[in-house]
Amino acid sequence: MSHILASLSALLFLIVAIPAQAAVTITFWSHELGNSFPHAFFTLRGTPDAGGAPVDLNYGFTPQSISPAILWGPVKGRIDIAKPGYMNGSDAQFALVLTDAQYTSIRALVDEWDAVKGDPTYRMNTRNCVHFVAEAARRAGLRTLDFPKLMKKPRSYLKAVAAANATQVTVIDRHGKEYLATLPPLAPAVAAAVN
Q1: Is the pLDDT of residue 113 over 60?
Q2: CA-CA-CA-CA torsion sign (177, 165, 108, 53)
Q3: Which of 122, 138, 120 has its CA nearest to residue 26?
Q4: What is the pTM of this model?
Q5: For residue 96, what are the β-bridge partners?
Q6: How many angstroms separate the most distant Cα atoms in the chain?
Q7: Can you tell me whether residue 60 is helix, strand or coil?
């Protein structure tokens, strides 16, 4: 009996001693229409399972300059990084945990739409902020994303995606300031043990 207890104790010690798997979570956000852009964006927060420094990033896609030209044809776009005040005034809609491959693919998406590394063309009807987050959602593994009538309605689009992928996402549906206050600090990167 003491042998079994010793084995269980050793097993329990191993389970507790093994560091928890880390992961990056993608959260999809909307910002009600107005003269601030983008109206849809996502955050990446956590530490890749493979290790490395923690990330706390956000990306949206917006026209480089806001003018009536966005209504008539393609204009130059850019990747946008939301400032804390903008995030506080936005709404966190839903989140899901990414694999490292999904995280890498989403980081590549940012480069693909970037003005320096990729194609920054913004088209109101076919390549706007909602299309950008839709592609991020596809790369995150979500499958039901086709809501053509909602591609200019960020909040409605993200709510439809969350409902259609309910088994894969965690619905947040909270105002940004309230949601951000619930996030724990990111743990510093831990160096891998070398034997």
Answers
A1: yes
A2: positive
A3: 138
A4: 0.83
A5: 26
A6: 79
A7: strand
Contact 106, 139 (CB under 8 A): yes
Query: pLDDT tens digits, residue range 118-152?
Result: 999 999 999 999 999 999 999 999 999 999 999 99
Q: What is the C-alpha separation between 9 and 28, in angstroms, rounded? A: 42
Q: 178 φ, ψ to 5°?
A: -65, -45
The pair of structure tokens assigned to 157 is 């689009």
Contacts of 28 (CB under 8 A, 6+ apart): 40, 41, 42, 92, 93, 94, 95, 133, 136, 137, 158, 161, 162
The whole-number average pLDDT for the span 141-167 is 96
C-alpha span between 47 and 93 (Å, rounded): 21
